[in-house]
């Protein structure tokens, strides 16, 4: 997939890294935005990704992501649910919500959730 991405000639850099509880080899405040789609689910990403998304996005930048509703329950991290983790960062003033909506029939007849946050 990285080879395919390179062929598009739109990315300055491609990296193969596992996003999760580990700190990525990316400096703080690097990107204007992070976009993640289709990467949450069984044995995929969980709520541990939020802290890293916020860390690598510049203040005022954006985190845009989605998930399938049925995967939310399996995406808890550190004893907290996906929604609790999102709300923790809201309460801590780390990001504000731009979009948080349910989308019927988002993928393969499954309902999804779409999110957009602005990093503070
Ligand atoms: C179902 S594919 C979706 C690929 C693409 N985003 C799309 O929408 O077509 C799930 C992707 O999530 C990636 N993924 C799962 N867990 C990950 C993790 N912890 N860190 C980074 N990528 C992960 C997988 O490598 C895979 O590319």
From TrEMBL:
Gene3D superfamilies reported for this sequence: Vaccinia Virus protein VP39
Record domain Methyltransferase type: where: 1-65
InterPro entries tied to this protein: Methyltransf_11, SAM-dependent_MTases_sf
Gene Ontology terms for molecular function: S-adenosylmethionine-dependent methyltransferase activity
Protein name: Uncharacterized protein LOC106177334
Organism: Lingula anatina
């Amino acid at each position: 997939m990285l080879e395919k991405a390179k062929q598009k000639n739109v990315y300055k850099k491609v990296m193969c890294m596992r996003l999760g509880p580990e700190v990525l080899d990316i400096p703080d405040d690097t990107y204007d935005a992070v976009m993640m789609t289709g990467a949450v689910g069984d044995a995929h990403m969980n709520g541990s990704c939020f802290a890293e998304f916020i860390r690598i996005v510049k203040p005022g930048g954006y985190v845009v992501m989605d998930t399938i509703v049925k995967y939310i329950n399996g995406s808890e991290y550190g004893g907290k649910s996906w929604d609790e983790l999102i709300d923790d960062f809201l309460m801590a003033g780390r990001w504000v919500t731009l979009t948080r909506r349910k989308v019927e029939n988002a993928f393969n007849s499954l309902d999804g959730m779409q999110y957009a946050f602005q990093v503070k």
